[in-house]
Every structure is written in structure tokens, then in C-alpha cells.
Amino acid sequence: MEGGNGDIYAVASTQDGKTVLLLTRYDGDNNACNLAKVTVSLNGGGIGKGVYHLTDDEHIYTEIPLFPTEEGTVIIELKNNAIAVLEL
Fold this sequence. Notes:
Elements: E1 2-3, E2 8-15, E3 18-25, E4 36-40, E5 50-55, E6 62-66, E7 74-78, E8 82-87
Antiparallel strand pairs: 1-4, 2-3, 3-8, 4-7, 5-6, 5-8
């Protein structure tokens, strides 16, 4: 995972061949309105097409499509105080 300015936190777990990644962006400045772009990749394999779930000031656990690059990475855009859940 790359991106953000130190205000991005992540936790991941793998079970039965399925990986779930939780990303959150928290900055105590509630006036922060810029998007943080986070690049996500997996060791040993690319990320395929699919969806992730986003919760922020406009979405409540909304499915957002993943558009992987040719290298198998995806870019997730997070507003301040956002949560994204990726099932890979």
C-alpha cells in the first residue's frame, strides 16, 4: 500500500484464500477536503476486477467498482474520515 500523508491506516487478514483489507483515513482536521490516493497491490498476484465498499460523507457501505491496472494494482481514493473494505 502506498499513498496518503500518514493519515491512512490499514489492516488485512487472509483466510481460506480470501484477503480482506480495511483502509481508513482519519485526520483530526475536519476541514480537510482533499482526496488521498492509495495504491493497493498484492504480493504474488494481481488484483482482479471486483468491487470494494466505501463509507464516507457521501456513501454508506456503497459498492464501488475496482479498475485494476495492467500491473494488477488498484487506486482507492479516500476523503477524510472514510473507510474502505476490499475483499480480494
